[in-house]
Amino acid sequence: MIVVRSVSELRRLVSEARHRSERVGLVPTMGAFHEGHVSLMRRAGQECGFVVVSLFVNPAQFNDAGDLARYPRDEAHDASLAEGAGVHVLYAPPVSVVYPDGFTTTVEVRGLSTPLEGVVRGTEHFRGVTTVVAKLFNMVQPDHAFFGQKDAQQALIIRRMVADLDIPVRIEICATVREPDGLAMSSRNALLDAEARARAPVLSRALFAASSLIARGETSASTALDAGRRLLADAGVDTEYFDVVSTVTLTSLERVSGEVLIVIAARVGNVRLIDNVLVHLGENAR
Ligand code: PAF
To answer: For 53-73, how does the pLDDT look when each residue is reduced to its tens digit (9 = 90+)?
Structure first.
């Protein structure tokens, strides 16, 4: 595996892979790798002959300077995990390569960026995500790009951006990887203290309590959510949002029909966690 910091070196390696007729896969990340990232890398390796993982803690998507400063970083550890997962290039550019002096362009997906994370983190959050992902797509020019279902809103927004801007990349959304107690894997889990770590699985328990009712045929969103709310109250966790939303528009639903997304965000201790499950009325949750 080669660690690359410049666009010219990245393009040289990608172009050599193309001359070998290899398909190019990109896994965009902000580092602090866990099993969820590794599963995206492995999936990329199954579908593409040449795998690039980008590692860039993107300042433009943090609305809180403290959150950016606290974001876990360990490039040497990340590099060894990526190498073990069969990655060919770890692209870890400095901020000055991604946002050189005079940089003023942004990419914004209106509508989908506004609810849920947009309310809590501000629409600038997703503007930062879409701007950097559009840049990464132009830098790497991958055939496939891999994202986690855990960031469901982000995944939907990126699909929209790719469709709207005719970016020639296939977006692959991969299932959330969970700890044995159900906690969705996240780089932020490393910041949980022991007490918060013990309480954090209640987010997934609440999601699965609601989704199992819907899977058994419950059509009232509020009845399904109440089952989860009881668990959250018992664990003393206040949510920023816990809702049943449309998988297409992310708008809140009162009546469930077909497939819906159940989303949750909460602070547990000092750490902000998000999670979600997809469930089809009358069928098992994913
Ligand atoms: O999901 C993430 O880690 C980030 O939002 C992404 C897609 C790498 C953009 O910075």
So the answer is: 999 999 999 989 999 999 999
CA distance 43 to 208: 26
Q: Is 36 in the pocket of ligand 1 (CB under 6 A)?
A: no
Q: Which residue has the tokens 């990464």?
A: 136
As a whole number of angstroms, the distance between CA 203 and CA 184 comes to: 9
Alpha-carbon Rg for the chain in angstroms: 19
117 and 7 part of one domain? yes
The contacts of residue 189 (CB under 8 Å, 6+ apart) are: 34, 179, 183, 197, 200, 271, 273
Is the residue at 180 inside a domain?
Answer: no
Catalytic residue numbers read 37
Domain count, the chain: 2
Domain containing residue 132: 2-174
| Same domain as 29, residue 128 | yes
Rounded Cα gap, residues 156 and 164, in angstroms: 12
The string over 38-77, giving b where at least 16 C-beta atoms fall within 10 Å of a residue's C-beta and e elsewhere, is: bbbbbbbbeebebbbbbbbbbebbbeeeeeeeebbeeeee
CA 201 / ligand 1 centre spacing (Å): 23
Ligand 1 closest atom vs CA 158: 7
Nearest alpha carbon, ligand 1 atom 6: 29
Type of residue numbered 34? H
Which residue has 């009325």 as its token pair?
Answer: 281
Q: Tens digits of per-residue pLDDT, 172-198?
A: 999 999 999 999 999 999 999 999 999
CATH number of the domain within which 266 lies: 3.30.1300.10
Task: Tell me the residue type at 170.
Answer: R
pLDDT in the model for residue 285: 62
Q: What is the pTM of this model?
A: 0.96
> Quick check: is 285 in a domain?
no
